[in-house]
Amino acid sequence: MSDTEFSAEEIDFEVDAEDLPDAPASQTPLGAPSVIVDDLHVSYRVFGSRGRPARGAAQPSRVQRLITKARGMDPTAGVTEVKAVRGVSFVARHGESIGIVGTNGSGKSTLLRALAGLIPPAAGTVYVSGTPSLLGVNAVLMKQLTGERNIMIGGLALGLSVKEVTERFDEIVDFAGIGDFVYLPMKAYSAGMSARLRFAISTAATPDILMIDEALATGDAAFRQKSRERIDEIRQQAGTIFLVSHSLASVKAMCNRVIWLDKGQIRMDGDVETVARAYRRFTRSGGADD
Amino acid sequence: MSLTPARTGDAFATDAEVLAESARAARELGLHQMGVRPTLRTYIVETWRRRQFVHSLAISKAYAENQNNYLGQLWAVLNPALNAIVYVIIFGFILKADRGLENTVAFIVVGTFIYRFFSDSVTAGAKSITGNLNLVRSLHFPRAVLPLSAVLSLLASLLPALAVMLAFIVASGYFPNSEPVPITARWLLLVPAVGVTYVFSTGIAFMTARAVANVPDLMNTIPFITRMLMYASGVLFPIGHYVSNPVLTGILDYQPVAVVLNLARQAVTDEPNIPLDPVMWAVGAGWAILALVIGFVVFWRAEARYGRE
């Protein structure tokens, strides 16, 4: 993996210092467990090429290739099993806001998807209260449809009724700040607009558990401020927040606990200051101290 | 089970206590397990609760389908009409594959409109998971919603197309060598005939949805299967006239696709060879229910696995 990708200068690029308060997220007394993750392993399938050796490297002979093909092991048409999460255990509580940090490919997004019930575990168990809502990097639900229809579809998928979605429609559009764009297909939206609309839809129903996967990175300062307030509100209503972000500043501002994932395992789990300091030291050293 | 606290509130105060007995902790705290298949009963209830979602998704899709054209929604009607015209010209007028028919045009038009709905349903069902991965990967809802809405969306487009189909049938009476088709109360039977076709298609869509979600390669075989079924089901010509073996004729007449086509033709064509036949209706309803039940159960069994890449 390339070191330059996580150089220290880049870590905080998305947040202006004056956006966010220095103090960590407000302390609220923790409630009962809302998420239990017990020795979770997740692996997923990747279809397609595992790649051939580059030119110059030793190529398998024609005969060898025929044999692998005949045995159904054609390397260009195969399925690769990737072990993304390997034995993660933790307990999250009502009112807790947990940041998940780690380098690219450390299993953060996969962990969130497994918590949301979107990928079944290969082993281990996940227990949650209520219906989790995942706000992913790809914020568009159906890009050929208008924002208006996406609001309806997203709301109904979250379990709201048509009446409830209609009641909250103005509030959602207001929060997203997209104005008349709501009547245009979402393929016409900028990345920030899509992210804002999706955030507004996902939080319209006040989820028990809200998981945000880098989805705030594309928003501007004003939107980050609004989303921070909304997250605090959800937390005060005993919701649990998970936030995956490359920005330690975002994590510091919005979370009161940080889990550091490394190669699919928990490397550190604790209060924001301690973990953030250790993680920063790790990335400054180029992530090569293991 | 050594922990026997006085109050449940104190039972799992620390994370270590919770993890030591996670299953019991989850039960007592009212948490449910993620990534596991719900019971069939729960699944049916959950799917039923999302019926507005199915409806909204179907309508949106039917609408989005044709919004990138100048003629827009008109294509929902023009497409099956052009399709029917092509087959009428080739099989009705050029090849004259009309043995024993009084009105070949009406026969072919009903066949192509109804069969097209079925084959489109099979294809849309097959793509319903793989084509909606954004939705599947970001929101948690019973995945049965997707094939259900895919077929419902096609039904929404079929209804205006049926008006065009009936117009074709009336017009066909003015063609040379075609007996006019009288408009009678029997045409009302088209409603249950389409209903049976819809239920049957939904069942098959569930099966193809699961098959293609698990093994994407199967998507490549679907066009061949639908093509094969088209010629084996007498969409364009009365297949009974080309097959003499009685066993084979029986299979070809009572296989589900042939039955649903027969039902629609009983309703709106006036062929002496296709009389009103209660047995056919019973067989059709049986096939439809069987397909729906088997399809739903087959789909449900893989519920926890959809959306894995």
TrEMBL record, chain A:
InterPro entries the UniProt entry points to: AAA+_ATPase (IPR003593), ABC_transporter-like_ATP-bd (IPR003439), ABC_transporter-like_CS (IPR017871), ABC_transpr_TagH-like (IPR015860), Bact_Polysacc_Export_ATP-bd (IPR050683), P-loop_NTPase (IPR027417)
Gene Ontology CC annotation, any one: membrane
Pfam families assigned: ABC_tran
This protein's UniProt keywords: ATP-binding, Nucleotide-binding, Transport
Superkingdom assignment: Bacteria
GO MF annotation list: ABC-type transporter activity; ATP binding; ATP hydrolysis activity
The family this protein is said to belong to: Belongs to the ABC transporter superfamily.
Protein name, as recorded: Teichoic acid transport system ATP-binding protein
UniProtKB/TrEMBL annotation, chain B:
Annotated GO biological process: lipopolysaccharide transport
Record-annotated membrane-spanning stretches: 74-95, 145-175, 187-212, 224-243, 279-300
Chief location: membrane
Annotated compartments: Cell inner membrane; Cell membrane
Domain ABC transmembrane type-2: from-to ranges: 71-302
UniProt key word RNA-binding: no
One GO term describing the cellular component: plasma membrane
GO molecular function, one term: ABC-type transporter activity
UniProt KW keywords: Cell inner membrane, Cell membrane, Membrane, Transmembrane, Transmembrane helix, Transport
Classification via InterPro entries: ABC2_TM, ABC2_TM_bact-type
Pfam families: ABC2_membrane
Topological type in the membrane: Multi-pass membrane protein
Similarity comment: family membership: Belongs to the ABC-2 integral membrane protein family.
Protein name in the entry: Transport permease protein
Organism: Flavimobilis marinus
